[in-house]
Each structure stands twice: as structure tokens, then as C-alpha cells.
Write a structure and sequence with these properties.
Radius of gyration of chain B: 22 Å
CATH class of the largest domain in chain A: Alpha Beta
Low-confidence stretches of chain B: none
Strand content of chain B: 5-15%
Helix content of chain B: 40-55%
Number of domains of chain A: 4
Structural class of chain B: alpha/beta
Order of helices and strands of chain B: EHEEHEHEHHHEEHHHHHEHHHH
Number of strands of chain A: 29
Radius of gyration of chain A: 32 Å
Oligomer: heterotrimer
CATH architecture of the largest domain in chain A: 3-Layer(bba) Sandwich
Strand order of the largest sheet of chain A: 16-22-17-18-19-20-21
Number of strands of chain B: 8
Strand content of chain A: 25-35%
CATH superfamily of the largest domain in chain A: FAD/NAD(P)-binding domain
Structural class of chain A: alpha/beta
Helix content of chain A: 25-40%
Strand order of the largest sheet of chain B: 1-7-6-5-4-2-3
Distance between the termini of chain B: 41 Å
Chains: A alpha/beta, B alpha/beta, C alpha/beta
Number of domains of chain B: 2
Shape of chain B: globular
Chain lengths: 561, 379, 369
């Protein structure tokens, strides 16, 4: 091929021009093979700069372009676009990073110049071996998978169902509703909540474009934003696996309660009448609050912050629902004595302070306590504790309710692995940024909402459900085109001997085995070009486009010669 | 999947030898074919010219008369024969394959790489006194046969391949059945089951598994311990010989890059070896640059790199069969070197190549907690 | 009469000094020749770029660890050499290189070739036996006298192509008593003359000693006929082939070292040569027993069909065979038979097209009839 390589060194304002001797770099590469022009320019990424490059490409009839400037993370795409518009295949271009990887790491002008020369020569050595690559386009799938049928999943489904797309809602238990279906009322309004949740479930059942899978779990997630391949399996029947494609995935798997039998001081599981919050909610919903011996309790202690030390974080909602429990008790058993043992009271927001004050007014004792221990005393339970005012103290009660921390569900780790996202603090799904990206993950197209992202209240869950809806509606537009990775692997059919080593190391499930030909095949649409397979194949039968052996070799050679 | 039975669980039967052990084995296989337990047998036979042995897939029972379960040489590694027949699938025939323990182990390794399919195969091994270097046989076949016969009787390994002389796995059972000839009473031999398939096969052959194989196990343990001592010493000596880079280069300096070692190796399964591919074919400027840097380079260069690369790729599956050394035209002790390194690399992962098809290949297995000693070394 | 350059040194030293001169002058940037690599008599081809390293060069050593035709092809596979080099190779190695060039597997551009009339090489096992140094003086004695050496590669014992055809410079070794005292470089081509122009020495007119060479040729020819007859009796019919190839283990070492076998992936290593279990099963029904792996003889016949037309009879195949099959004589014989049909001598003339690739309208009418 008759190559005509143009080399352009960006001054990047004073950033580069004052830190290296650009003219020396020009001299060093001017007479290399295939170089037809070497120039410097003030700011190549500017509109003027791009116009200049376009004009240069046309003037010299360049076939390949080298730019020595900033990091590819900044302007790789910018310059690739310039190439494309000027008639050069955008992959016949290489950007040498002489800013972040050169002038920004040393103040020594001489050393920086030497390195800039090496980096530019390396880019030239490499670009000579580049092959033109064609972008592929495919239509993105507008449908959405929502994992988890609790309030977050329900809300997201209902919001998204208005648009022109199919929603797949997968719930691992037998019915939708999540934790809320066990509550009689929610705070602070203390209205019965089962009706509203039932209404929502009814609406979902009636909505045609929401397909519900109960008693089911996600078996596999392959692919990428705009093109995920999902497999769902019913828990009862191993063989019944359903496959479908979606464009986005939402994890709304909620959380579960910390198990107090991991501690010894509360007597949970040892003594009768020590209940967790969920057990109490269920008892309360059934209508009768009773002790094991069927008698009505005369005194109840509610212990906040169970497991807080072990988990290392505050679960936001337990103080409020503990107050709710106090209300439940007082409403049903007016004469009952209620003690709330807390360490700190967490009552943020514009309505919660009032709720607390009103609860206090119902003759409920709030005790700030440390070192709580529950012991059995005949038919009763004794709470021993340290009061910051009066020192060691104890009380006898009939029933103890523990308010435990929220923790992520058991499937969190598995689902994270499918999609390559991480788990963050507490083992919850990691959001991409606490403030600026609370519902997005590091994998484009995979979102998180509700308690699967971290402990939160119902209002906050709804907020996140709506946020996810917004994100999906704005990014996954029906008819939108997506471009799968161009720099993918390719397996030589004649050299592959079918040992499946590459299959084992592919993190994206992009390699399948052709049983007839007994060779491995790369699914170019799912492949992300990570190169694991290339490295793993002992016979070198796999090539990575744009990162071929020769391209890397020539780049290295030019860099270190 | 063949899960090896624990030592204490291995069950066996004692069978009598009427004429010779070879005859008894042949009769057993014939019986198997008669009763439809096997449709075919894969076993070595002497070639028409009499100067070698080759594996034959036998359907016609009468051919079994010339089959030899334990030939003096290993012309083609048994695993390669199995791969030739079953690489592309299982077929419908039930095949009994009779091979040496290291050939069975290599076959097991190949199951993990999709290069053999043994679901329809019953793998039968036999106690192995070793293998003679192939040229020793070819040059004087009749003499070699007598030497091997005597060596089998006295279990003396002096005429065998150097790696056979320090092999402590010559009675290791990795397949379905094993023929035990050690620790037996006169005119008797053991047949030991190592898997459900093996057990079922013996049942179908009306061979009850009620024999006491203790004496076999004792003798095998004795032999293995003796060999292990020898192995340790030999490896120590070998390490001093090739330990330093200069010594290593010197040892491989005679290599002519014929790649015979790689080709006869049962676990080198690549269709096109990396070291035969375009990746090692450089332009003239590259060679000239290297030659200028050093003043002169061997042409073609990178001889030792080939061996180190091959070692990296297959060491974890090396079964120390010694086929490589037999095939080397320059008499380089490749098998001894590769076998020694394999002990170490496999030892790192507590892995023995071919010991069990249930054990995944260490190279492809990710464990979060592993090799801390290597991490620590770099702290 | 051809121009020649005479140096008053023993032949080996003379050639060494000549190439040193070329290197120092800059006429060439590298010397490709045999070089000692250890004290035990091992030699290997080397690409030498400094004078000092040339001290260990042994250009006419009677050993062929790899056929230099393969090596020169590898050197120029990805394009002709970027800088001029001089290569000292044996006649069959040169012919192999020419045959490869005809198949786009190399280039002669910028390469100067020095060759010699060749006394043959020893089998490679002599290196392991560490007896080559002992044999050297005896070897050269025979060469100087124009006599046959014993214990050479069988291919060399029956080789009648010991005179190079296309070298730029030829050193006539066979039948020259004074190899110890003088070195005569016969400058066959303009390139050769250019190369030798500035070297200090006596320029004279000299040809290859045709008479001596004819005598030697006759000896070799007789030996060849004997070898061919021996193999002929062994190779009769399929039974003969089965006997002679019966111990072949299918290692394909022969094709790996063969200079003419240049395919990246041999047909017989590809998936084309693999059989499904159903094929084994149907064959077994017919035959009752099958050698595994199959296709032993088929491979050799295939290789003969593919490369026989260009076989230069170097004997590398036999040296590498782990089971001592007399491959070189088989291939040499069949190769020459094919070549005779077309009156083709592989590697003699770079312009001569490979008969296998040449269509002639009028040909083999005897077969038609």
C-alpha cells in the first residue's frame, strides 16, 4: 500500500509547547518512511484545528493520520470523526499521548522531548500496520428487564409501561409486592398501605406490555446496552428456561434484614417473644399482637440499631418504623407500656420530627442506651442497659422487638457478576457516583433502584424508580442505533483445534462452540475486545482487530529502539 | 467422568493365568467382544515387518491373537491414538483401550481439552516396567523382545527410557480398569476397578470383585517409594546440569528446531503451534538488527525460547511419558528436563496430570486465594 | 574462461578472510554461514555482522543442521533483505532456495551466494556421538583426493548434484590437493566479480576441473544406483510400502525439516485429514482392523506428490526420522523419477517454471495412447 502519513503535533496551548521542544520532535520523525508532512498546530481539537486537519488531509492526500497531543480519552473520537469526514478510515489513525503520559509527568524538558519523540515514533510504527475497520450498526432493543417485584420494580414497570416497549418483570417469590406487602401501615401518615400496593399490582397484571415471571430467577445476562440476551428460569422446573432480548436491565432486588442470631446479646432464637421487625409486622398485620402463650403483652421493648455496629452503617428507616411499631402497639393495646431503646434517633425530613413528637406524646418511653443485654426472667424478659444519665439499669418486659439493619439480598453478588458491575459499601450494588449517578452502574444500560442500591425509605425508592425510568427513556429510544465494538476478536477456523480454552476465559460469554466444525466462534456483537482469548489461545489462532501481534510489536519496537 | 476411587475403596478380582499373561488378557478381551461388552478393542500390534508396534482398532476378534497389551516400545503415545479416533465425537462403538498408565493419564488430560471423547471407551491400564528407547528396538527387534521380557519378569528398568527409570507412577490407575501384575501369586494377576464403568464392565464379564488386592497395593507402594528416591536424586543432579542460563542454553544448543518433541507429545494438541506460526516469522531487517546488536545470531534464533514456550504451555499437563526424548534426533534429554519442571509446576497447584478427569486444568481455573507466596515475594 | 581470485591461505581461512573483508568494507552487512557453537563440534548457521565473530565460522563443515534453503527463505519471507548479505551454502541448499523462490517463499535480491563443490555431510547423530571432530581429517583427505567418504548421509553418498549451478562464487573443493595452501574463488557471475573486485589477491582465469569432477560423478552415480536398487527391492507394491513405512509414527518431522515443504499448515495436519468416528466404524466393518492413527502411507505418498518435483535430495528428512526410515533414498529416487519425466533439475535455473504449474498442450501423448 502506498502510505502517506501526516504527523501533527498539538501545542495544546502552552500545555505542550512550553514543556517540550516540538521542533526537535518534528525533526526526529520528518524523514521516516511514508511520512509526507509533519506540522505543529496550536489547538487541534478546536473547530479551527479540525478544519485545519481536514484541509491538510485533502491537500496531501493523506492515507494515515498521526496526532501527538492529549489522552485518547479526551479526543480520540474527535479526531476519528475528522478522519471519517475527510475520507480516511477512522482506524487508520493513531493518537500519541504526549500530554498526560509525557509532559504532565516530568518537568524536565529534555526528558519530555525524548519521550515525546519515542511516543510519536511508536504511533507511526503502529499505524503502518493498521487495517481499515468498518463500524457496524444495529438497532437497539427498547425493551427492559426489571429484576425484583417489590415497590421499586413495580413502580419502574408502571412508569416505563407507558412507552412503546415491553417490560419483563422477574420476581423470585410467588407474588409481587416485596417487603411492603407485610406492612399494615406506613409512616408517617399511618394509612393502610395494602390497598395501594394491591392497586398497583392489579394495574400491572392488566397492563399488556408488562410480562411477569414469578417464582423465577435470572439465569444469565449476556450482551451490552441496547442488546442484552436474558435467560430466565422458573425455580420449580429446571428445564423451563425462557430467553428474550432487552436493551436495558434494572436491578430492583431490594434488601433483607440482618439476622440477629449473629449477635448473642439479644437472645433472638434463644428466648420466646424476641421478634424481628418483619416478624412483628406480620403479627400486627394478622390482627392480634400476642405472646407465645397467647396472652396479651403488658410491656414491650423496641430495640433500635440492631446490627449497626456489625454492618457499619445506619439503615435510615429503622428508627422511624420503630416509632411506627410503638404506635401500632398503643393503638391496639392502649394500656401497654412501650420502651424505645435507641442509640441515636434518625428522623430526617420535613415530616418526621412531628411524627416523633406525637409518638412521644403517647406515653412512650425513649431511652438512650448502650450495652443492651436481654435475659430471661421466668416468663418475662429483662433488659439490662447503660443509660448515659443514670448508669446501669434494667427493665422487665413481656416482649422485645428488634429493629435490625438492612442488608443486600443473596442474589446481589450473582447478578453483579453477570453484568460486570461491582458491589460497593455494605455489599449493595455500586452506583457509578453517589451524588451524580445514584442509579447508574459502571455498565452502561444496567441500572439499580431501591434498597438494592442501599437502605432507604419508600419515598426515596419511588424517587429512584422514577430516576431510572428517566434514564431509560432518554437513552434507550426506540429505533435508536447502537454501534457494537469494532475492535473484536477473530478466531481462525483452520488453526483452531477446539480446546475451548478461550471459552473458559471470556468474561462476556462472547465465544460459542460450533459442534459441527469443532471450532470456537466469536460473537462479534457481544465481544468487547478485551483480548483475554487472544492471550489464552496457546497456538495463537485468535487475533484481536486493531491490536494484532504485529501492530503491538511494531509499536513497542519503535518505542524502545 | 471418572472419579478415582480412594485407595481403600479400590476393588479387584484375582484371575488365573493359564498360559501367559498376554494370552489371559487377550482372552478377557475376546470374552468381552463375544458378550457384546466391547464392540472393538484399541491395542498395540506388531507391524508386518516386525520392527515396531502400532495401535490397531480391532473389530475382527481373530486379530486379537496378535495383540500385545504391553509392547516393549511406545511408538505412538496411546493418547494420540485415542484422539485420532474420538476427537470429533463418541461414535456408537464401545471400545476397550489397553494402554500404559501414562498414556491413560494423557488421555484424561485431553478430555479436559475436548481433544478426546471417552464416554464410549473403557480405559484399561497395566502395570508398566518401562518403555525401551524405540531405536534400541528397531535396530535389533528380536534381541529387544527378549531383553524386555526379562526386564518385565524382574521389573528391572536399566534398558528403559531415562524417564521411565525414575517413574513413580508406573502403576497409577487413572482409567476404568487396571491389570495388576505386581505382588501376585504365581499364575495369577489382578484386575482392579477404578470407576463405575469399570465395575459394570467386570460385572458384565462375570468377574466378581471379591479379590484381595492388598499384596498388589503393598508392592506398588514399595516400587513407587524406591522410584521416588531415585527421582529426587536424579532431578537434583539434573538441576545442577541445567540450572544456570548458560547451562540451559548449552543443553539446547544442539537443537535443530525440528519440533519432533512437540509433534509426538500427546498433550501438545495445537493444530498450528505458536512457534510454527507467522508470529515467529520476522522480516529480514529484524534479524539483521538483532545480529548487529550481538555481533552474530544463530539462524534461526530463539531455539531455547521454543522449549521454554512449550514448557509454559504444556508443563501442567506433562505426563512424563518420554516420547519427546525418543523422537529427538540430537539426543537432547528433553523428557528428563520437561518431566523435572512438570513436577514443580504441577506441585505448585497440588495437581497431577491425568490423575482424575474431575480435576480442572490449573491454567484455566481462577481461584481468588492462591499463590500468596508469589505475591509476597514481590512485596 | 572464468575469472577467479586466488588467496594464499588454506581454503577455509581464505574464505573467512574474504567475507571479513566484505563485511569490513561494507559491501555486505551480514555473513550467513556455518559457525561453531560449542566445543563439542556442534555447528549452526549464523547471521554474523562483526569480524570477530567470523573467527568461529566454518563455512564448509560437513554437517547440515538445517537446510540453509529453509533459512534463507525464512530470512526473506517477508520481503527481500533490507541490507546486502553474503551466504555460504551447499549446492543442494542453494537449489532448495531457488525452488522456494519460484513459489514466492523468498528472494535472492541483495544476497550474494558463495557455494562449493560438495563432499557431503555426516548424519546429525554424529553430533550426539561426539565423533565428528575425529572424522574431520579423514573427511578432508578423501575430498582432496576426489574420493568417496564413508558413513555420510545416504543421500550424500548417492548425490550427483554436488556442483552448484547458480552461485555467484564457487569454491572447488573436490579433488584439489592444495586446499591447505590456497583458496581459489571462482567468480561465476558479474555480481561475484563486483564483490571480489577490491580484495587483495591474485586474479586469474580458472574453471571447475571438469575431469576430476566427472570421475567423482561416476563414483557417486554408481553409489546412487546401488542405493536405488536396494530400495527398489524393498518398496515393491503396497506390501513393500507397508513394510518400509510400517514403523512410521506420523510425527511429520520429515516435512518440518524439508526445505521444499513450505505450507503453513500441512494438508495432513489440517482438519481435512481428520475422520469422524462414523468413518472409522464403516471402515472397520469392511476391514476388521485399522491402524490408528490412519493414513501413514497416504501421508508419504501425498508428500511425494506435492514436493517430489522439487526434491533436492539433501537428506534432512532421514536425519530427523525417529525410527530410521530410509526416507531420503525413497524420496530422492521417486523425486528424480518425476523430475526425469519433465527433464527438470530442481533449482538449476531460476527462470525454469515448476513443471507442476506449467501447462503444455503437447505433452505425455504416450500416456494418452
Amino acid at each position: 500500500m502506498n502510505r502517506k502519513i501526516g504527523v501533527y503535533i498539538c501545542e495544546c496551548g502552552p500545555n505542550i509547547s512550553e514543556k517540550i521542544d516540538i521542533d526537535k520532535v518534528i525533526e526526529a520523525v520528518r524523514f521516516l518512511n511514508d511520512i509526507v508532512v509533519v506540522e505543529r498546530y496550536k489547538l487541534l481539537c478546536s473547530e479551527d484545528g479540525k478544519k485545519y486537519l481536514t484541509e491538510q488531509i485533502k491537500r496531501y492526500g493523506l492515507t494515515h493520520l498521526i496526532i501527538a497531543a492529549c489522552s485518547p480519552r479526551d479526543h480520540q473520537l474527535t479526531f476519528m470523526e475528522v478522519c471519517e469526514n475527510a475520507g480516511i478510515n477512522p482506524y487508520l489513525f493513531q493518537l500519541a499521548n504526549i500530554r498526560e503520559q509525557c509532559v504532565w509527568i516530568t518537568a524536565d524538558k529534555e526528558e519530555a522531548t525524548k519521550k515525546a519523540i519515542r511516543l510519536t515514533k511508536a504511533a507511526i510504527g503502529r499505524v503502518r500496520c493498521h487495517s481499515p475497520l468498518e463500524k457496524k450498526e444495529m438497532e437497539s432493543n427498547p425493551d427492559v428487564l426489571i429484576v425484583g417485584g417489590g415497590i421499586a420494580g413495580i413502580e419502574t414497570s408502571l412508569q416505563l409501561a407507558h412507552s412503546d416497549r415491553k417490560i419483563y418483570l422477574v420476581e423470585k417469590t410467588a407474588s409481587l409486592g416485596g417487603l411492603i406487602k407485610n406492612f399494615e401501615k406506613t409512616y408517617p401518615e399511618m394509612h393502610p398501605c395494602s390497598i395501594s400496593i394491591q392497586q398497583k399490582i392489579e394495574t400491572i397484571n392488566k397492563t399488556n406490555n408488562i410480562k411477569i415471571f414469578t417464582d423465577s430467577e435470572v439465569e444469565d445476562i449476556l450482551g451490552f446496552f441496547g442488546n442484552f440476551e436474558i435467560k430466565v428460569k422458573k425455580n420449580t422446573n429446571e428445564k423451563d428456561s425462557v430467553s428474550f432480548n432487552v436493551g436495558a436491565v434494572v436491578f430492583a432486588t431490594g434488601s433483607t434484614l440482618f439476622n440477629p442470631n449473629k449477635t448473642t446479646c439479644y437472645g433472638y432464637g434463644k428466648f420466646d417473644n424476641v421478634l424481628t421487625a418483619l416478624e412483628f409486622e406480620k403479627m400486627n398485620l394478622s390482627g392480634e399482637i400476642v405472646l407465645k402463650n397467647n396472652k396479651t403483652p403488658k410491656s414491650v421493648a423496641i430495640i433500635h440499631c440492631v446490627g449497626r455496629t456489625e454492618k457499619g452503617y445506619c439503615s435510615e428507616i429503622c428508627c422511624m418504623y420503630s416509632l411506627k411499631f410503638a404506635r401500632y402497639l398503643k393503638d391496639k393495646i392502649p394500656d401497654i407500656k412501650v420502651f424505645n431503646f435507641y442509640s441515636d434517633l434518625c428522623i430526617p425530613g420535613k415530616t418526621h420530627q412531628k411524627f416523633y413528637e406525637q409518638t412521644q406524646g403517647k406515653n412512650i418511653d425513649f431511652i438512650r442506651a448502650k450495652n443492651i443485654e436481654i435475659a430471661k426472667k421466668g416468663e418475662h424478659l429483662t433488659i439490662t442497659y447503660n443509660d448515659e444519665k443514670s448508669g446501669k439499669n434494667n427493665y422487665d418486659v413481656d416482649m422485645v422487638i428488634l429493629s435490625p439493619a438492612l442488608e443486600p439480598t443473596a442474589d446481589t453478588a450473582r447478578l453483579a457478576e453477570f453484568t460486570g458491575i461491582s458491589l460497593g459499601d455494605g455489599g449493595f450494588f455500586a452506583e457509578v457516583h453517589e451524588k451524580l449517578g445514584p442509579v447508574s452502574t459502571s455498565s452502561q444500560g444496567v441500572f439499580i433502584a431501591g434498597c438494592s442500591q442501599g437502605p432507604k425509605s419508600i419515598p426515596d425508592t419511588i424517587i429512584q424508580a422514577e430516576a431510572v425510568t428517566g434514564k431509560i427513556l432518554s437513552s434507550l429510544i426506540p429505533g435508536k442505533k447502537i454501534e457494537p465494538e469494532v475492535k473484536v476478536s477473530f478466531i481462525s477456523e483452520s488453526f483452531c483445534i477446539g480446546c475451548k480454552t478461550c471459552l473458559d476465559v471470556c468474561s462476556y460469554g462472547a465465544i460459542t462452540f460450533n459442534e459441527t466444525k469443532k471450532v470456537s466462534v466469536v460473537n462479534e456483537v457481544i465481544c468487547r475486545g478485551c483480548g483475554n482469548c487472544v492471550a489464552a489461545c496457546p497456538s495463537g489462532a485468535i487475533t484481536l482487530k486493531h491490536f494484532t501481534f504485529n501492530q503491538i510489536y511494531q509499536e513497542l519496537k519503535a518505542a524502545i529502539q | 467422568m471418572i472419579k478415582p476411587a480412594a485407595s481403600s475403596e479400590k476393588k479387584g478380582a484375582v484371575l488365573s493365568i493359564k498360559t501367559t499373561i498376554q494370552d489371559s488378557i487377550r482372552n478377557l478381551l475376546k470374552k468381552g467382544m463375544d458378550q457384546g461388552v466391547f464392540d472393538a478393542v484399541l491395542i498395540p500390534m506388531r507391524v508386518p515387518a516386525g520392527d515396531s508396534f502400532s495401535y490397531v482398532l480391532i473389530k475382527d476378534k481373530s486379530l486379537l491373537n496378535n495383540a500385545v497389551a504391553l509392547p516393549p516400545i511406545m511408538s505412538v503415545q496411546g493418547a494420540k491414538a485415542v484422539s485420532s479416533v474420538t476427537r470429533l465425537g463418541n461414535g456408537t462403538m464401545k471400545i476397550a483401550a489397553v494402554m500404559r498408565p501414562c498414556e491413560i493419564r494423557a488421555t484424561i488430560e485431553l478430555t479436559k481439552l475436548d481433544q478426546v471423547h471417552v464416554e464410549n471407551m473403557t480405559l484399561i491400564s497395566i502395570d508398566c516396567p518401562g518403555v525401551m528407547p524405540i531405536l534400541d528396538f528397531i535396530r535389533e527387534p528380536e534381541k529387544a523382545i527378549k531383553l524386555f521380557e526379562n526386564a518385565t519378569k524382574s521389573w528391572d528398568d536399566t534398558i528403559m527410557r531415562p524417564v521411565c527409570q525414575i517413574c513413580d507412577k508406573s502403576s497409577m490407575i487413572a482409567g476404568d480398569l487396571h491389570i495388576g501384575t505386581l505382588g501376585t501369586k504365581k499364575d495369577a494377576f489382578f484386575i482392579i476397578s477404578n470407576s463405575k464403568k469399570g465395575k459394570d464392565t467386570l460385572e458384565k464379564l462375570d468377574i466378581p470383585l471379591n479379590g484381595n488386592i492388598d499384596s498388589w497395593q503393598i508392592k506398588v507402594k514399595e516400587n513407587a517409594e524406591e522410584k521416588q528416591k531415585k527421582r529426587k536424586k536424579t532431578h537434583k543432579d539434573l538441576k545442577t546440569k541445567i540450572g544456570h542460563l548458560d547451562n540451559l542454553l548449552d543443553t539446547f544448543s544442539q537443537c535443530i528446531n525440528c519440533h519432533n518433541c512437540m509433534r509426538v507429545c500427546p498433550v501438545c494438541y495445537c493444530r498450528l503451534c505458536y512457534f510454527d506460526s507467522d508470529k515467529v516469522k520476522h522480516p529480514s531487517g529484524e534479524y539483521l538488527r538483532r545480529a548487529k546488536e550481538k555481533g552474530s545470531i544463530r539462524f534461526l534464533p530463539d531455539t531455547t525460547l521454543f522449549h521454554m514456550g512449550r514448557m509454559m504451555h504444556m508443563s501442567l499437563s506433562c505426563v512424563s511419558c518420554g516420547s519427546c526424548e525418543d523422537a529427538c534426533p540430537m539426543s537432547i534429554p528433553v523428557a528428563q528436563i520437561f518431566s523435572m519442571v512438570a513436577d514443580e509446576t504441577q506441585g505448585l497447584f497440588d495437581y497431577v496430570a491425568g490423575r482424575s478427569s474431575g480435576e480442572p486444568l490449573p491454567l484455566k481455573t481462577y481461584k481468588k486465594d492462591e499463590l500468596h507466596e508469589v505475591e509476597d515475594a514481590h512485596d | 574462461m572464468t575469472k577467479a581470485l586466488k588467496l594464499t591461505k588454506n581454503t577455509e581461512q581464505g574464505v573467512r578472510e574474504f567475507v571479513k573483508f566484505l563485511l569490513e568494507k561494507g559491501n555486505v552487512k551480514g555473513v550467513f554461514t556455518l559457525k561453531k557453537i560449542n566445543q563439542k563440534g556442534s555447528v549452526a548457521y549464523s547471521l554474523i555482522t562483526t569480524s570477530d565473530e567470523l573467527n568461529d565460522a566454518v563455512p564448509f563443515y560437513p554437517l547440515m543442521p538445517t537446510n540453509a534453503g529453509t533459512l534463507l527463505s525464512r530470512f526473506t519471507l517477508n520481503g527481500s533483505t533490507t541490507e546486502p548479505i553474503v551466504a555460504i551454502v551447499k549446492p543442494c541448499e542453494l537449489r532448495a532456495f531457488i525452488e522456494l523462490i519460484k513459489r514466492e517463499q523468498g528472494s535472492l535480491e541483495n544476497i550474494y551466494i558463495i557455494s562449493s563443490t560438495c563432499g557431503g555431510v555426516y548424519p546429525l547423530k554424529i553430533v550426539a556421538e561426539e565423533t565428528i571432530e575425529k572424522n574431520l581429517s579423514q573427511y578432508w583427505d578423501a575430498v582432496k583426493k576426489g574420493e568417496m567418504n564413508e558413513n555420510l548421509r545416504p543421500a550424500c553418498t548417492g548425490c550427483t548434484e554436488f556442483t552448484p549451478y547458480t552461485a555467484d562464487i564457487t569454491v572447488d573443493l573436490i579433488g584439489h590437493n592444495n586446499l591447505d595452501k590456497e583458496c581459489v574463488l571462482i567468480l561465476n557471475t558479474k555480481k561475484g566479480e563486483e564483490l571480489a573486485k577490491e580484495m587483495k589477491g591474485e586474479f586469474l582465469e580458472r574453471e571447475l576441473d571438469k575431469e576430476t569432477l566427472k570421475k567423482f560423478y561416476d563414483k557417486r552415480d554408481a553409489a546412487k544406483k546401488k542405493l536405488f536398487n536396494e530400495i527398489n527391492t524393498k518398496m515393491k507394491g503396497l506390501d513393500g510400502l507397508i513394510e518400509i513405512f510400517g514403523r512410521c509414527i506420523g510425527c511429520h518431522g520429515c516435512s518440518t525439516v524439508c526445505p521444499i515443504c513450505y505450507c503453513k499448515l500441512c494438508e495432513f495436519d489440517s482438519s481435512d485429514s481428520e475422520y469422524k468416528p462414523s468413518t472409522y466404524e464403516s471402515e472397520l466393518k469392511r476391514r476388521g482392523g485399522l491402524k490408528v492413527p490412519p493414513g501413514t502411507i497416504y501421508y508419504h505418498l501425498g508428500r511425494l506428490a506435492h514436493m517430489g518435483i522439487s526434491c533436492v535430495g539433501c537428506g534432512s528428512c532421514e536425519d530427523v526420522c525417529p525410527v530410521d526410515i530410509p526416507l531420503s533414498i525413497i524420496f530422492k529416487k521417486v523425486g528424480e523419477s518425476i523430475q526425469q519425466i519433465f527433464e527438470y533439475i530442481p533449482g538449476k535455473n531460476i527462470e525454469e517454471k515448476i513443471p507442476l504449474l506449467t501447462y503444455e498442450e503437447e505433452e505425455f501423448t504416450e500416456i494418452e495412447e
